[in-house]
Amino acid sequence: MRIAQAEVVVTCPGRNFVTLKITTEDGVTGLGDATLNGRELAVAAYLSEHVAPVLVGRDASRIEDTWQYLFQGAYWRRGPVTMTAIAAVDTALWDIKGKVAGLPVYQLLGGACRDGVTVYGHANGDDVDELLEQVARFRDLGYRAVRVQVAVPGIEHSYGVSRDKLFYEPADAASPTQATWSTQRYLSFVPNAIGRVREEFGPELRLLHDVHHRLTPIEAARLGKALEPYGLTWLEDPVPADLQEGFRLLRQHTTVPIAVGEVFSSIWDCHQLIREQLIDYIRTTVVHAGGISHLRRIFDLAALHHVRSGSHGATDLSPVAMAAALHVDLSIPNFGLQEYMRHTDETDAVFPHTYRFEEGCLHPGEAPGLGVELDLEAAARYPYRAAQLPTNRLEDGTVHPW
């Protein structure tokens, strides 16, 4: 079963997506997501110029061998561009294998460990009252877990607060939007706001909050201690993960569960955090961490150390990556939560899929492979549109993590 063609498709049905379509000599096709938010064309070029030419003629059934060939054979290893490109190939080959076997991918990964994949949505508001309204909206839609973000008074462009309360896309302009940040304002405001949510909705609704890498370890410890009474499921990305020892300091001061990893591209980015049990949820994802094969390695390591999965699932994952994530989520023993941001109707039309939402859970469906297709005619109606992620500065003008 040799690969006959590897085609890179870039489309923008509301936001940019990069998709790799692999076709075998027998006419079987597989899809892989290669979207790297704000750097999409870098991955598209890597695939078109360096990866696609060496795929033609390879045996599509040798998934692990192809992964190792693209990783070890390139010499320049790891990094978000390389690993996103490898992820696209790996995911597409799993899609092909499932179609040839006549089975959904999760069955090839060992079968289901649960009946559905519990997902969380994004509730946000320009003030606490609007946040409460949006949490109620997600609860009424059937969500059992909700991430809560609220605009902080005095901070322009607060992270996680969107104009459209169901669809959030931060990469919104050809030139980066300029946001501002004040740690003091944030720490003084957010704990009480989350407390209001917990008071309103009681103990059963699972609540999460994303700091987005903006605090130092001791600042994050202060936030964690303030949030302990409200029983968060997790506090996400409280500090930049470049200095992983910082999580040890954070652990010494608070028992709030910690989630991190959406920007990680390999198991080597998170092995210390997992091995030393400095986190509770690992948020690596199919599209940015080397595909299904490598994500399983990360989750297997995490399972040995009582760390659960909590994969990233924002709109920069196309339905192809979302479906792949669901197949992995369904099959692993240490699943925690799956982020789920709904796509626009235009995106769903470009990527028709079998996964479905019901009673707070997603299920990938029983179609062979991933259960996602690519409508090339629809994709062609939405050409690439330059879009950058925002940047962030302190009130005095100092550049700060966004």
Mean pLDDT: 96
Radius of gyration: 20 Å
Distance between the termini: 45 Å
Order of helices and strands: EEEHHHHEHEEHEHEHEHEHEHEHEEHE
- Summing up helix and strand content along with how strands pair, one would put the structural category as alpha/beta
Largest sheet: 10 strands, mixed
Number of domains: 2
- Number of helical runs? 13
Going by CATH, the architecture of the largest domain would be Alpha-Beta Barrel
Number of strands: 15
Query: Runs with pLDDT <50, length 5+?
Result: none
- Would you tell me which CATH topology of the largest domain applies? TIM Barrel
What portion of the residues fall into strands of 2 or more residues? Answer: 15-25%
CATH class term of the largest domain: Alpha Beta
